[in-house]
Amino acid sequence: MITRYPTKQIFVGNVAIGGDAPISVQSMTYSRTADVAATVEQINRLHFAGCDIVRVAVPDEEDARALKSIKEQISLPLVADIHFNYKLALIAAESVDCIRFNPGNIGEKSRIREIVKACQERNIPVRIGVNAGSLEKEFEQRYGATAEGMVASAEYNIKYLEDLGFTDIKISLKASDVQRTVEAYRLLRPKNNYPFHLGVTEAGTVFHATIKSAIGLGTLLLEGIGDTMRVSITGELEEEIKVGRAILKDSGVAKEGPNIISCPTCGRIEADLVSAVSVIEAKVKHIKKPLDLSVMGCVVNAIGEAKHADVAIAYGKGSGLVMVKGEVVARLDEDKLVDRFVEEVEKMAREED
Q1: Which residues 6+ apart lie within 8 Å of 320 measured at CB?
Q2: Is 163 a domain residue?
Q3: Could you read off the pLDDT of 295-307 as tens digits, one per residue?
Q4: pTM higher than 0.70
Q5: Any binding-site annotation on 119?
Q6: What CATH code is carried by the domain that includes residue 342?
Q7: Whole-angstrom distance, CA of residue 46 vs CA of residue 54
């Protein structure tokens, strides 16, 4: 059983972050924000992929002015991502549900004070987004681009916001490598109770970003650290949500959808297991109920695993068993097993707990 660190609960739009709220999955559009139609289209794609919160880049005033129109056309909570020009945050705050700024490139503290004032007036939270690659000069000179430097920056800026009477804060501490990222979150976690946004930044293509995020975010989640997260991928938007949801499920943090247990390929397999698992994944992906599904290709693994699954196939030579809660419900030829298996899964998904 994973025990999460107790954190203050804040709201980004209608999504609760921290406290006992589920860990939310975020993503970010890649269109120019001023292109309202393209940005709305991408946000809608993310919505249907299962995204909880969406962030958009705001590099200039045209982008900031577009936020009002975008907000009117979407249902997801909207976060404005601000770098360098604090005045863009003041415009964005009129329309969005949260402001994310990087203290390392906003500059003078008076500018942060103006951002905080705008957020206070509209009752929207701030995400302090510390990145190892863009620390404030004083922290980089003292610590270098280290986890300690990231934590020092975060603590300084948290204190500054608190001194302004502002505590609707979430925090991210991102580096492009797993080790620094994990170390920074671990160092800061015992020092405050603000919710953490997890992520390994600039993680690369789908393959590398999946591995880095699974290691980094999975490690932190297993330690009870994290309240919201993004998997940063150089690729299609939906992949970020798909990988993020999988990390939550496979780490045991979220209980949603089927958990498919299947054999590694080996010389004992007596069926076309690869094709069978592929078909099953496609046919059960719509199911939200948490179920353990076992698809085993030989007698060595089959019965033991099948016995503990909600629904299972135990393949033999040319035929096999379908089992429900460890009980055999059918003995069929190989070509009929998958259809019967899916039928039993659908039946169980409809049952009340």
Answers
A1: 271, 302, 313, 314, 331, 332, 334, 337
A2: yes
A3: 988 766 666 677 7
A4: yes
A5: no
A6: 3.30.413.10
A7: 8
